[in-house]
Structures are given as structure tokens and as C-alpha cells.
Amino acid sequence: MVNVLKISDTLVKKCARSKDYNFDFNKNTGFFARWGRTLKDDPEFAPSPEILDIEVSTICHQACPFCYKSNTTNGKNMTFDTFKIVLDKMPKTLTQIAIGIGSIDANPDLFKMMDYSRSKGIIPNVTINGERMTGALYDRLAQTCGAVAVSLYDKDTCYNAVKELTDRGMKQVNIHALLSKETYMKCYETLLSRIIDPRLAGLNAVVFLWLKPKGERNQLHQVESMKRFQDLIETAMEVGGSFGFDSCSAPMFLRAVKDNPNFEQYKVMAESCESFGLFSGYINTDARYFPCSFAEGVGEWQEGIDVLTCNDFVKDIWNHPLLDKYRKRSLAEIDCNGCRKCLIYDLEI
């Protein structure tokens, strides 16, 4: 697909240029644009990952009943040495990482890892649950991260965390709200809170996460109907302010807005599944590669692919026969709106 790929990397911007694959990434704002031979062309996949989820700890004190990772206080940490080896193997196309951690203080090397990522020109981001936070931790997150998401579990804990971060000048602060039958009203109320709760004045966006049926403790259920989903979207549009969905939601989102006069615009903006060797990937605490965190331990992805022993990430991981098999499947299994389908779970409503 790519002949010669050139990467330019400055303190503010990372750019990729080749005949068929190009991108611009602004490290300060998070703006990312990708195109192919022309600006209208959209490459089917990247020559190597643009973003990675890297799990640095499975230790969490929350014990949420719906945790798809089934994390407890008896977890494990990725060592800094392992993190460094993993990052050193990454191709230059990598623009940012999403660090996966349960309790914010679970891994004592968390900020050392973030600093190392910054030193490599890779922007670190993280999702927090808002618990066990201190002023010093908020300071460090605001100084180091490109973006911070706060999971919506307890409303006050979440909203207070958003305020702490935005008060420190952070612009890319989002709320991650798991969307399910059981959490539907909480998602709805969060949209309304944007216009009445001053703690959310600096919030960037509410991002809804599509429920995946994974986790021994997970007893949640999919939203009952497309009508309920459409009602939530309509409320979000009426309230105003930025909102979004994870890529798993894209097929359902486009079906929900099919009669909207701005449908074609939404179709361009919606990015369906970018895993399975397309644009992103996931590496767990043992430095094993999976298409995404939800694929870990499922089907043919029981063990993943060992990153530590690979000599060439692109050859040994990104173009591994198993990942290439799923890449081809992902590109072939497209719905009527051009969305790639999830290859692991049935996410339809």
C-alpha cells in the first residue's frame, strides 16, 4: 500500500507523508486528519498503528459489578522496563497512547511512563475513575496528558474530577459514559447536567461507550431499542455541546440518524471499528498484543502476540498472519452505511 513513508515530528506536530497514506496530528489540540492519494481518499488501513491502548495495571479498588476486565485489588502492573521496551519497538506512525489503569495510584511508574512517552514524541492520555485522587495527581495529569477521560460511575465523583482538571487549564477533558439499559437514565441526565452544573462548564465532550457482553461480573444489557437510542441522540443535539460515541457505536449511530438532514456529514465523521490491524491496537500488562482490549482471551485471541520477543513490530505483529486474517475480514464485512462490523461480538439492537 505504501511506497516510501516519511515522518516529520516536532514538539507541536507529527506528520506522515507517502503516496497513498498521509496524516497530520497536532499534539496540543489532538486534531488528527488522515487521507490517501487525494484529500478525498480514505486509506483502508495504516502501515502501522496510529494509536495504542497500553494497559499498565489491572489493580482496581472499585470492584464495579459490570467491569469487563473483572479487575480486583489483586492485579498486576506492567514494569517501567517492559513499558520502555514496548514503546521503543513502536513505529514512527504512533501518535498517542491511551494508558489503561484501574486505580490511579496502582502503578507507581505511571507518570514515569507518561514522561517517557512524551520524550518519544508520543502523547499519553488516560481514563480515570475519579477515586483516590489528590491535588498533586490532578496537577500531574494536567501537565502531562493530552487528554483525560473521567468514567461516569458516581456522578459527583465524576463531575468533581472534571472540574479539577479543567480548572487546571485542560481543554481535552471528556466524560466516558457506558451506555446500557441500566445506565440509560444516567447518560440522559449527564447531557442535561452540561447546561445546569457549573462543574461541567469546561467539559470538552460526553462520549458514550457501547456495551460489550464481556466480563464475569457484567450483568448489564444492551439498550432496548433503536428508538431509545435515537431519543438519546436527539437530546444530545438539542442540549448542544460536543458529544460522541466510541467506534463500536458507529454502525448503530448511523442507523439512528439515517433520516437526519445532516446524515452525509455524520457519515463522514463516524469512524467504525479501527482495530484488527487497521489503525489501532491494544497491549496488555504482559506485553501481549490484541486487536482491542475486548478481544483479549476471546476466540482465536486467547494468548495474543508477544511484543517483547518481536524483532520488527510491523513484520512480526502488525503483519502477523493472524492479525492479517482479521484485517481482511474487517475490510470485507461492511454494512450498508460502509461501517466495519465488530468481529468479536454481536452489538446490534
Automatic annotation (TrEMBL):
Q: Which InterPro entries does the UniProt entry name for this protein?
A: Aldolase_TIM (IPR013785), Radical_SAM_PqqE_MftC-like (IPR050377), rSAM (IPR007197), rSAM_sf (IPR058240)
Q: Name one GO molecular function term.
A: iron-sulfur cluster binding
Q: Which SUPFAM superfamilies match?
A: Radical SAM enzymes
UniProt KW keywords: Iron, Iron-sulfur, Metal-binding, S-adenosyl-L-methionine
The answer to keyword Iron applying to this record is yes
Q: Which PANTHER family match?
A: PQQA PEPTIDE CYCLASE, RADICAL SAM DOMAIN PROTEIN
Please identify the protein, giving its name as recorded.
Putative radical SAM superfamily protein
**Source organism of this protein record:** viral metagenome
